[in-house]
Structures are given as structure tokens and as C-alpha cells.
Amino acid sequence: MAQVSEQTALMLAVRDRRDKAAFSRLFDHFAPRLKAVIMRSGTGSGQAEEIVQEVMLTVWRKADQFDPERAQVSAWVYQIARNRQIDVLRKESRPVPEALKHETENEPDATRMLAVEQEAGHLRQALEALSPDQRVVIEKAYFGEMTHQDIHDDTGLPLGTIKSRIRLGLERLRHELKGLRAE
């Protein structure tokens, strides 16, 4: 059996055993990321939280529809979120933001989804190859969407050190991932 990601293992536990602890971990992982993505499209914090709650409820209710052969968990969850956000915007008779329109018009095919999943795997491996100091600040900056000042406040590291670690880490990632697009 092929090795699966932590999120896939958790989602399969929810799908197959209705595992509430696994769902709680998925919720803790996806909720802040979903909220940030939804807010970036201009939705207010309160409404974004409501959408996230509805999305995660849908994930729980429709867990039986998750198929790890068709999409990775993040793609499946973000698709549910995008669809829910479009529904909310339509109900409010607000125009759909351009970014969401283009995604609807250009639905990714299975080949593209597989390529994205493979690229994500390469990125995970490249991140693991970084020094822990570099990996932590890059994850905070790019996955946690923290500013340099937020990272400083969180870690106590000097801003110059944070910037250097990010710069050096990104250079190493570029080197590790070089040629990925050429394949």
C-alpha cells in the first residue's frame, strides 16, 4: 500500500470509522487556512468563520464521498470551500470575485490534480531537507501567513535573522526544486 499523508490518514479515519478525534485534528489544520483564504477574497472575518464552519460540517457529512485516488484531502476540502463561498456570494447577489470565476471556468482535470499532488510531495521533501531554523520561519511566513514582525513577536528572533533564514531557506528550496517544472 502506498504511503499516505497525515491528512489523508485522518480523512480516511473520518470516512471509514467516523473518528471524531481525527476530524478534530483535520478541523484544527484546515480551519485557520480556510479562513485566511476566504478573507483574502474580501469576505469579513465573521462571515468567513461561518463559511469555515459550514465547510467543515460538509466535510464531516460527506466524508463517505472522499476518494484519495481522485484528489488529496486539501484539494477536496478547498473545493468544498470554494463552492460554499460562491453559494454565499450568489445568495447575497454580490458579484463573484474574479479569482473565483476563473477557477470555476478552468476546473482542473485529474492529470493536473495528480501533478499538483506530486509537486506538493516534492515541496514537503524539500522543506524537510532545510535546517529546522530555516524551515520554521518559512512555514510561519508562508503557511502560517505571518509577517516578519509576527514571527519576531512569536519567536523573539531579530528581524534580520528572520529575513536571512527565509532568504537562505528559499534559495535552498529553489535549488532542491530546480528542474521540477521541466519534468
From TrEMBL:
InterPro entries: RNA_pol_sigma-70-like, RNA_pol_sigma-70_dom, RNA_pol_sigma70_r2, RNA_pol_sigma70_r4_t2, RNA_pol_sigma_r2, RNA_pol_sigma_r3/r4-like, WH-like_DNA-bd_sf
Residue stretches making up the RNA polymerase sigma-70 region domain: 26-94
Record keyword Transcription present: yes
KW Cell inner membrane (keyword) present: no
Pfam family, one: Sigma70_r2
GO MF entries: DNA binding; sigma factor activity
One Gene Ontology biological process: DNA-templated transcription initiation
Keywords: Sigma factor, Transcription, Transcription regulation
Domain RNA polymerase sigma factor 70 region 4 type: 123-173
NCBIfam families the UniProt entry points to: sigma70-ECF
Family: Belongs to the sigma-70 factor family. ECF subfamily.
Protein's UniProt name: Sigma-70 family RNA polymerase sigma factor
Species of the source: Psychromarinibacter sediminicola
